[in-house]
Amino acid sequence: MALNDSALLAAAHRRQGDRLPIWFMRQAGRSLPEYRALRQGISMLDSCARPDLVTEITLQPVRRHAVDAAIFYSDIMVPLKAIGVDLEIVGGVGPVIAAPITRVADLDTLRPLEPADVGYVSEAVAAIVAELGDRPLIGFAGAPFTLASYLIEGGPSKDYAKTKSLMIAQPELWLDLCSRLADISAAFLTVQVQAGASAVQLFDSWAGSLSAADYAGFVQPHSAAVLRRVGELGVPRIHFGVGTSELLPLMGAAGADVVGVDWRLPLAEASRRIGPDFAVQGNLDPALLTAPWPVLAERVRDVIRSGAHAPGHIFNLGHGVPPTTDPDVLTRIVELVHTEGPEIRAEAGALADVTSGRA
């Protein structure tokens, strides 16, 4: 099978074949004991800058779970660190910025990202692609709003009050900040695609904290700039955020081919809101991974049935794999999706046609 015929790329282009593709956000690392052993004594950012570790960690879940795609092992902070932003990823906390952005002068730290800044990314991507064969590698980057929120808040936030305040009170500063971040994210994704990644995902993890009006006015144009640049490279673009049920049409319109959906909205309803020009990705609630298998398996089937109402469906969680997840559960989910998925999707689609009068 040629790479272009892979189940994931076909679904992303709304050409769902006889295999329902599946991968997991944060499958590279976190829950795998082999990952924790490899990372022993090595910081997150240091591990992301070592091509040997990145290659091995990216491939570990492909070997263990037989997922249909690899997700490049990195962090949304990597390109910011690469251009000299003073930051660290603190265990149990997340990214911590030494000097948060509050004024125009602070933007001087955000220079353009050059391919040479992340040469280790190109090296790792090439090595991974050589091992994957007919499975695609998904590159990824953080969207401008999510990156801006870390830079303004100085770290994770519950309400993003500083970010929203700056966005509204200092629109010119906000525009300059997000324009620079859009260029950085687009450059980071371009490096990955040019080295061999055959799809990308733009994470706007915290966009769900915004109203639709603020998202449309202050955020969507910058995500659109990233996705437009990547679109010129000819690879499918996945756009994902958490708590974004009211933003899904806007996220699709920003330039996605696939819209990622968290667990709060059934995929059938998500597809109805987004429209027929987009595939969907998701959306099993990751909190359910600890449920008894018969219960969990039926929830997996429910997601497949709901996803059958979309023109293309890539099975995934509604957010990342929790670190306490039993890896064997993920393997069982993959097996279920591969063995039962096509039949469940076909039955659900036929029922939908009868119900709607299309049969």
Automatic annotation (TrEMBL):
InterPro entries, A to Z: UROD/MetE-like_sf (IPR038071), Uroporphyrinogen_deCO2ase_HemE (IPR006361), Uroporphyrinogen_deCOase (IPR000257)
Keyword RNA-binding carried by entry: no
Family classification: Belongs to the uroporphyrinogen decarboxylase family.
GO MF entry, a single one: uroporphyrinogen decarboxylase activity
Functional note: Catalyzes the decarboxylation of four acetate groups of uroporphyrinogen-III to yield coproporphyrinogen-III.
Subunit note: Homodimer.
Recorded catalytic activity of this chain's protein: uroporphyrinogen III + 4 H(+) = coproporphyrinogen III + 4 CO2
Biochemical pathway: Porphyrin-containing compound metabolism; protoporphyrin-IX biosynthesis; coproporphyrinogen-III from 5-aminolevulinate: step 4/4
Protein name as annotated: Uroporphyrinogen decarboxylase
CDD domains, A to Z: URO-D (cd00717)
Gene3D superfamilies: 3.20.20.210
Cited HAMAP family: URO_D
Alphabetically ordered keywords of this record: Cytoplasm, Decarboxylase, Lyase, Porphyrin biosynthesis
High-level lineage: Bacteria, Bacillati, Actinomycetota, Actinomycetes, Propionibacteriales
Binding residues annotated for substrate, in chain numbering: 26-30, 75, 150, 205, 319
